Amino acid sequence: MSDLYDLVIYNGRLVYKDAVRDGGIAVQDGKIALVFAASERPQGKQELDAGGKYVLPGLIDSHVHFRTPGYEHKENWESASKAAVAGGITTVLDMPNTDPYTDTIERIRQKDKLIQGHSLVDYGFHIGVVPGKLHPLDGLQQEHAASIKLFLTGHRTARNVIDLDADLETIFRLAAQRQIPLTLHAEDDAVLHLYRRVHRTPNDLASYELIAPRSGAIAAVSRVLRLVRKYGTSIHVLHVSSEEEVDLLETAARAGYPVTFETTAHQLWFDLESAAALGTKTKLSPAIRGKRDRARLWDAVRSGALTSVGSDHAPHSLKEKAADFGEAPPGLPGVQELLPVLLTGLGRHLPELSRDEQLSKVVSLLADGPANRFRLNHTKGSLRPGLDADIVIVDDEQVWEVEAKDLHSFCGWSPYEGLPLTGVPLVTIRRGQIVFDRGKFGKFDGRSLSYAPAPFATFEQVSGSPFH
Ligand SMILES: [Zn+2]
Prior knowledge:
Blueprint: E1 5-15, E2 20-28, E3 31-37, E4 44-49, E5 54-57, E6 59-64, H1 77-86, E7 89-94, H2 105-115, E8 122-128, E9 147-151, H3 165-178, E10 182-185, H4 189-198, H5 205-211, H6 214-231, E11 235-237, H7 243-254, E12 259-264, H8 265-269, H9 272-275, H10 291-303, E13 308-310, H11 318-321, H12 338-349, H13 355-373, E14 391-401, E15 420-430, E16 433-437, E17 440-441
Parallel strand pairs: 1-4, 1-5, 6-7, 7-8, 8-9, 9-10, 10-11, 11-12, 12-13
Antiparallel strand pairs: 1-2, 2-3, 5-14, 14-15, 15-16, 16-17
Helix pairs in contact: 4-6, 6-7, 12-13
Zinc ion binds near residues 65 and 312.
């Protein structure tokens, strides 16, 4: 019996960033031991018929706010990680704007301790920086964090704004020396302040966009590109929202700058018009923009210029969101909806792609791309022998009419409620263990990630980007 694999998944359509192949996967000791063709059939102690459905690598959401510690009235790690695995996600990278702020190696360790035993997914952290207090970065090495996260502007739940030229110069230089990427909330604080002084307090989405305009994002991106040119720092710009940012970042990448970028599922889904009825629920930072911006983001999906899509899962309670437009905190939940929204959007916005090609886009943006970007590609991001057996079986035709009762996030609401989304995960496996199976959950034994001690040679492998 010793020649049996721990788990065999057969009769699947295995999805890679550039191909879909019929076959299956054998798992041993939590790793992918074998990828086999449809004509083969190894035996396992446990066997799973994928039923001809798509089989993807476990998805990576490289941008979440799971709110521990300090904001557990909005979310907790158990509910958030349930939402994640129900959405096919097996790995998340958590942002530092918790309370206390995750701005030291010691606080990363403390956060890790709080999460142990409470997570269905594997996890890592972006480390934060407090303005004028950069000394915690002195001991920072590649193995400590996925990236250094900088907020160039702030809001209610992100108060540590790095705006001084001196701070930025120091951080860009240090990150380049240590070969640690920077992730950026790139909106220019001074520009946004200017608009706030001139425009009235917003009372709807359109007037909110007037005080958080595209010019703020464009100014910030051009500012950081100057620093990239000066120091050679590798950056990943988060939640890109406007046509002009895409243009700038694509051009910089083509010119050989070590630059990649993310957008979010909600920016790919909504525009100012379609989000208007949702009011404060779609109050976001950066703001939702117009149809031509959304179209440009889909262009970047089509061309491969986009490296990753994040959920930017940033739950707030309904009570908090019920405040008036000026007061309500920006952000929305979405880790459970990330894959269904992207799949549905691909069907709608890139209909010229075959379904196989659309699934490959998903793998590129939610597995290969973030794994390569954040030095996780030695363990995660693809259905390759030797990597962790993180696997999700997806029914790409099943329709999910989103209702609050289906949601696992503690905040209990979704901007997509009432909408039909097409494509849902059936079974999610993390390091060989079934952590989600049609509504049932597995063990809360997710663990913290290791980062490959990669120089930016891996940069050439950043999937999704034809420019490197
Ligand atoms: Zn965020």
